[in-house]
User: Fold this.
Amino acid sequence: MRRSLSLLFAGLLASTAFGASAENLDHAALARLTRQISLIENKAQSDGASVQFLEPLLTERLNGIAASTPLQAPAFATIENKAGLHTIPVDFMLAQLRLQTGARFNADVGKALTNANAPALFIRGGAITLKQLAQDAAAQFPGALEKNGDTYTANWPIIIWSDSGLILDDGNRLELSTSAGAFMLNAGLLQLDNAAISGSAESNAGLTDFKPFVVTAMSGALQAKQATFSNLGFQGAGSTSGISIIGAALMPARMQSFFVDSHFDKVSSVSLLNTHNILIAGNQFRDAAGPAIAMKGVTNGRVLSNIVTGSRQGQGINVQNRSSDIEVAHNVILDNRGSGIFLANGVRDITVSANLLSGNGRGGISVVRGTCIDLAGNIVIGNRQVGIKVRTSDRLALSQNELINNSGPGISVTEQGPQATLTISDNHFIANKSGLHGGSASEVALARNDFAGQSPILLDGEFASYVPQLLRVSTADHAAQPLIIHANEQSSPRTDCQSGS
Assistant:
């Protein structure tokens, strides 16, 4: 009976003012859009793909995904003086690494070293290019860093101290030996300009799970443009996850870290912890083991115009642990095992806008325990669970999102606190399993949403009984009037998204 009533309401809704004026999808149009998404998925997997590369396919409903103005990439930092090359005991640096990074540092890393008594290359006192580093190492420490054609292979760990920098440019390729247990610790500046860092293909006899990794910690910064990173990192996120940047309150970074127009292939995760002022723009992330991009405790971060595909165990983009002032915009996020974008655990002041999310295993966007978050203008289509899920969060605004053909509800709102508020306005719901689902929800304000393409179920769960009111406020005479579901009695001060109080 309920399904037949929902079909009736869907038919009535299609005749209302907003339903009649909206651009909706019939079966043929939905099939065309599905084929268009499939073409985008195939092209996004190509070597060197970018959002700009996908632009010919980002038409009609998808034409807001590509940014309208090009990004102005930051300038590289410079370091005066020429660095000297020294050695330092690996055990000492591993102890420092554990002390300074903490986060999921794999305590067994020392087992991967071919020779536990061998030192690490230690750069300090200025800047040095990879070519010069190889020449100095060949003269002072034979076998530590070898040149094989266009590739330099590091058999020892490389340490960049806080007063120094290592520069890779002009097509330089640095390979960290997996069999020898090589890795990099950067406390100064690691810079890649049209260069590459990779882990070698062979396995490690002492620690079968070992993969080389690059850690930037203490006051260090990592700056990359048109770079390639591949085959790096233990599975998951954390300091040995592939590429990590880890801040410390007593030693804040002196330079901005950024990744621009670069490619990440089989890098377990790019992990950013307790740091600030991060830019990740115009990159391609493929086949990560954990979250492709993981932020914890990050302030002032921008994730713009990236392609994120095929994360095998985690989310496409994961923002957690009180991260704030984060912008996630114009990204194409496809076929990740977890959610496309996951925001959780005390995050606030986050904007997620104009992203394309499709084929993600746990839904398009999930927000858990977040405050003051705007989700606007996203295309959330064909995800394998919910389009957008909101749980235990407050002061959220969901507007102008396209929620199309998701296997679960277009939007789900659950487990809200007694004073929590949520605004859902100007969204399109088309061919989802249900339109809007509620469970243990508090105040939700609905305004000017288009359900004309959503059938058979418009509102689901504890929201189902509000269908008649939804139809009534959707008529021409009442279109400007929001429908308030479960209105709160304001008995305590509301969170102020401007002041943070």
